[in-house]
Specification:
Umud Fragment, subunit A, five-stranded antiparallel beta sheet, globular, 2 helices, mainly beta
């Protein structure tokens, strides 16, 4: 006991700081690493994104116990998901809200009978970047010319259940999302991301991508 008392006296400031950091990461905000290509061109492998854990709900720290709702997830939000179906964290974009009827054919998205508008931003022999616009939001997405499984380009029509969401990766031909794991329950949403904090390029010995530091996401 004397040893523990002495240790506490010598290190209490550090321990309190550590406890504050752990509490902050659990309940308020955190960083999430992007691994893979499923959210290209919006997010790149090696990006570190800011996660606002108070964007939608307030929960007891270190638990999934719900305390209060702050706001509803919106169409177009980039969210971090603790997916039980996938058994890991996912980063995807909300496309369908509760009650929406979702229909996709050959990567053309139709929600509640209204098809999205598409504009080609750039293209090469392997891929194409498009701007998808539907209702009051738009964002860039990627299509791959070399994609083999064309069946994954179609979905539905299905209606999104109450308190669940339909999510897609921006890299439409290289993303395991609601087309694979089905709808996402609200209680599996960890938080919302709206910016890249910093980025390391795994293809260039993890050199920083300075142009992506503190960039806002669309």
């Amino acid at each position: 006991m004397k040893y523990l008392s002495a240790f506490w006296k010598e290190n209490r400031k550090f321990m309190l700081l550590l406890a504050t950091i752990v509490f902050f990461k659990s309940a308020i905000a955190d960083l999430n690493s992007i691994s893979g290509r499923s959210m290209q061109p919006t997010l790149l492998d090696g990006d570190k994104v800011w996660v606002n854990k108070l964007a939608y709900d307030i929960r007891i720290p270190f638990t999934d116990i719900f305390l209060a709702s702050r706001a509803d997830p919106r169409r177009g939000d980039i969210i971090i998901i603790d997916s039980k179906a996938a058994g890991k964290r996912l980063v995807k974009r909300i496309v369908g809200l509760p009650g929406d009827t979702i229909y996709m054919r050959n990567n053309t998205l139709v929600i509640n009978g209204q098809p999205a508008d598409y504009e080609v931003v750039s293209s090469d022999k392997d891929s194409m970047i498009i701007r998808e616009q539907l209702f009051n939001y738009s964002h860039e997405a990627m299509l791959s010319e070399a994609f083999g499984n064309r069946a994954a380009r179609s979905f539905g029509p299905e209606t999104v259940p109450e308190d669940q969401f339909f999510v897609l990766g921006d890299n439409r031909d290289n993303s395991a999302d609601s087309r694979i794991y089905s709808f996402i329950p609200r209680d599996q949403i960890i938080g919302r991301s709206s910016s890249v904090v910093f980025s390391l390029d795994s293809e260039r010995n993890y050199l920083p991508r300075a142009d992506r530091f503190m960039t806002e996401l669309q």
